[in-house]
Amino acid sequence: MKTHTVEGERMLAQVGGLLADIGVVVRASHERWDGGGYPDGLAGGDIPLAACIVSACDAFNAMTTDLSYRKALPLSVAVAELQKNSGTQFCPAVVDALVGLVTEAAAEPAAPGFVATVAPAAAPAAPAALPAPRKA
After folding, report:
1. 95 closest CA partner among 103, 107, 86, 108
2. What is the pLDDT of residues 112-133, one digit of tens each?
3. What is the mean pLDDT of residues 90-106?
4. How many CB atoms neighbour CB 15 within 10 A?
5. pTM for the whole thing?
6. What domains does the chain contain, in order, with CATH numbers?
7. 8 A C-beta contact, residue 30 and residue 39
8. What does the alpha-carbon distance between residue 85 and residue 99 come to, in Å, rounded to a whole number?
9. Fewer C-beta neighbours within 10 Å, C or N terminus of the chain?
């Protein structure tokens, strides 16, 4: 189970180009802010910002989507779970940005065709660019 991120990176590296760069994000998508994740045990600012975003958004999506074995959780419960795990599982700046978006979206209906984008102003130790793909 814990090799799927490495395999994903390997497959994307074989394609090359932009997908190879995305492979770095795939590899780091199960790292934890506190260093307890996998496959490399990265922590804090050593985790690519894009992987931190994917991790928090994936968890939020899993919590707020009906699954075959359970109903979606209410937004307030999913937000509380993100906040509870901010600084341990998730990057605090990413959680703050995601919670802000969710809170804003819940308060006001979006105009048709509206697309929100977020760039946390103070992402801790975020790399300026994605690192080069690792050699297999």
Report:
1. 86
2. 665 555 444 444 454 445 555 5
3. 93
4. 11
5. 0.77
6. 4-107 (1.10.3210.10)
7. yes
8. 12
9. N
